[in-house]
Every structure is written in structure tokens, then in C-alpha cells.
Amino acid sequence: MSDRPPPRWFLRLLTLIHVGVYRVSGGRVGRRAGSYEMCMVTMTGAKSGRRRTIPLMLVPDGEAVVLVASQGGAPTHPQWYYNLRAHPDITVERSGRSIPMRAELSSTEERARLWPICVEHYPPYADYQRRTEREIPVFRCAPAGR
How far apart are CA 104 and CA 89, in angstroms? Predict the structure, then answer.
């Protein structure tokens, strides 16, 4: 078995299928990965300006949602990291509800508070951090207007 990641076209296809099934089922199918809750995040592409929806692991923080740019511990940030930095106004679909939110990259202090919550919620994040030399970015997304 190869240690190389799957081709990008294959990952994009899986993402399209995941989002499609989630939407067609009204959020009943595709909202969990095992025992972990997923959400659909709609954002604007940093370069293309096009709206894109991707499934991400959901870490709740009160009314806010925490998104972890782990990319499985890869040495580089996922593309969506750059999208949120350029266009922080997003929509998070959770259990069939769409919530307008604003994503903010966590400061060092806030990340120190949020990281243990992220790892408690999804333990593989600790392994992902060990795999990479970069500090995995964490976004706190609060409901728009709050």
C-alpha cells in the first residue's frame, strides 16, 4: 500500500459526492464520520472567487464552530485555509440548518485554549500535529453579527 495521498481529482470527486448526498438527504446522510459530526462549509475561493462547499469535521465551541486546517498532518495548509483568510464570511450547514458565520484565524492564545478542545473532540488531531512541522491553524467561526 502506498503512503502517497490519493490524487486531487479523486478527493474532489469524493467531496462532490459527499456534499450531494448530504444536500439531497436534508443533512440526514453525510453529517457524521463514524461518531464524529461533520458540517458543510460554503466559502468563496481565494483565487477563483467561486462559491465552494466542502465537508469538514465540526468542533463546537458554544454557538461558534471551530474548523481545524489539519489536512491530515500534511506539510502544507489545505486550500480552504487560504479561502477563509481571503473571504471570512462563510455559511455552515449543520444538521440541515444553514448558519451565516464569520471565520477568524485564532491567535496564539486562543489556539492554546481551543486546541485541547479540538483534540478531545477528535483525537486524531493530536497525531496530525505530530506528523507535521507546521502549527495546524484553527479557525473560530461565530454566527454573523455576534
Answer: 9
143 with 61: CB under 8 angstroms? Answer: no
Residue 92 pairs with which residues in a beta bridge? Answer: 41, 99
Are 69 and 75 in contact by the 8 Å Cβ rule? The answer is: no
**How far is the C-alpha of 9 from the C-alpha of 13, rounded, in Å?**
6
For the chain, 146 residues long, give each residue's pLDDT as a single digit of tens. 445 555 667 777 777 777 777 777 776 666 666 677 888 899 999 999 999 998 898 999 999 999 999 988 888 899 999 999 999 999 998 877 899 999 999 999 999 999 999 999 999 999 999 989 999 999 999 999 76
What CA–CA distance (Å, rounded) separates 79 from 77? 6
pTM: 0.84
Q: How far is CA 116 from CA 38, 96, 121, 129, in A?
A: 19, 27, 8, 12
